[in-house]
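can u pls check wat happens w/ NAP
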Amino acid sequence: MYQQSVTMKAVICPKYGPPEVLTIRELPRPTPKKNEVLVKILASTVNTGDVRIRGLRVKGFMKFVMRIVLGFTKPRRPILGTVFSGIVEQVGETVNQFKVGQEVYGTTGFKQGCHSEYICISENKVITHKPKNASFEEAASLPFGGQTAIYFLRKGKIAEIDNPQVLIYGATGSVGTAAVQIAKYYSATVTAVCSSKGKELTQALGADKIIIYDQEDFTKVSDKFDIILDAVGKTNKKQCMPLLKSNGKFFSVEGTDISSERTEYLEFLCQLFENKNYVAIIDKIYPMEEVIEAHRFVDTGRKKGNVVLKIIP
Ligand SMILES: NC(=O)c1ccc[n+]([C@@H]2O[C@H](COP(=O)([O-])OP(=O)(O)OC[C@H]3O[C@@H](n4cnc5c(N)ncnc54)[C@H](OP(=O)(O)O)[C@@H]3O)[C@@H](O)[C@H]2O)c1
């Protein structure tokens, strides 16, 4: 049995601001309720969602909405982090999908709490077994971009399109690298827009055509697309309209369309990873103690794929 006095280390965001507001504290380790599992977290990610919350970095009216959702003057839930991979340490009395010692991964969305050595999560929330062939770092890097890419590409009904023609704008971030790979899984012909620095990565991901945005204007391309996904939110529908087929669809990660998080998406990513249809793209791995550096790097907006935070070494 666990004592309430047992502690754990967690990254705390006591107020909105730059990376330097973050600090590591000892907190009581949580005890699982009867339908919850206690997960010992080995790896998480610092993603664009985390830095957005930390800095309350949203535009206009959305800032007000975010304050209502997250906390008016400071984060109501001060432990950031929306992704975890780890080992089941303890299970509540009614849990029947997980056993102590199993390797799992999952997401907590706006509840956050993953930049911490332990977390309690209901077995019916977004948690599943991690891919058998993935390291904990690789598993942690799958959900953020992966779930977003699945959400938008399925919204575009990619599986129902015969020989889909897909353009991914911003193909080298967490969402972009996932979107290229998932579109390829659905047998799409993928045109990827990236910088000259991202060309090699985009090629390795299997993009069929690459447009280098610092050398070429992607809107001048003569191809027409069934789906255009702006995976970095740097373009807009008006700019992309001429590139769409008559029934083509444009999606952007920027705005009010927020991707859902589902266990089914994680199971799909697990299957893709285990079948070698998907690789984890990790730019840097930081230990928890260097969380401020990790946030600074993600703040640059230049990371390739994902930034992993190693929680328990
Ligand atoms: N709506 C939703 O549900 C949802 C879900 C997840 C994420 N998001 C949002 O999606 C956005 C992207 O997230 P992310 O985590 O994938 O970002 P990220 O990993 O930080 O994206 C950075 C990448 O974008 C490239 N990039 C930067 N400027 C670019 C430009 N002008 N054109 C093309 N590529 C550019 C960078 O490479 P170079 O600098 O070499 O070009 C870098 O590789 C964030 O704003 C995030 O908040 C939304």
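The chain has a mean pLDDT of 96.
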